[in-house]
Amino acid sequence: MTSSIASVTHTQPAAPVQPSASRTTTQTKPKPAKAATDTVQLSAAAQAQSAAIKELRETSNQTAQEAHSGDLQAQRLLAKENAAQSANK
């Protein structure tokens, strides 16, 4: 069976769209998203423990430098170390 087409409408192809100069200058670049930051508050006990760990990792030269600059804790530690060395001799 055949069917005939009664009418055909021809349309003109659309002209390609070109961006105008004003559009390209007003467009803004997308800003990168800010990284989420978390804040942590340490308790007094945790802060003291952290300080104690830092002191344990300190070399004797660092302790001596701090003692000479007036750090009382470093001065006490040097006195303890000197007393221990004197007792072991």
- Main beta-sheet strand count, sense and barrel state: none
Q: Tally the beta strands.
A: 0
Overall form: rod-shaped
Mean pLDDT across every amino acid position: 81
Count of individual helical segments: 4
SSE series: HHHH
**What would you report as the Rg, rounded to the nearest angstrom?**
39 Å
Beta-strand residue fraction: under 5%
Helix content: 40-55%
User: How far apart, in Å, are the first and last alpha carbons?
Assistant: 119 Å
Structural class: mainly alpha
**Which spans of ≥5 residues are poorly predicted at pLDDT below 50?**
none
Which terms would index this structure?
single chain, 89 residues, mainly alpha, 4 helices, 0% strand
Describe how the helices and strands are arranged.
Elements: H1 21-26, H2 44-57, H3 60-68, H4 72-88
Helix pairs in contact: 3-4
Explain the overall architecture.
With 89 residues, this protein is mostly helical. The protein has a domain at 42-89. Helices cover 52% and strands 0% of the residues. The chain is built from 4 helices and no strands. The protein has helices spanning 21-26, 44-57, 60-68, 72-88. Helix 3 (60-68) crosses helix 4. The radius of gyration is 39 Å and the shape is rod-shaped. The chain starts with 20 loop residues before the first helix and ends with a helix. The model has no long low-confidence stretch (mean pLDDT 81).
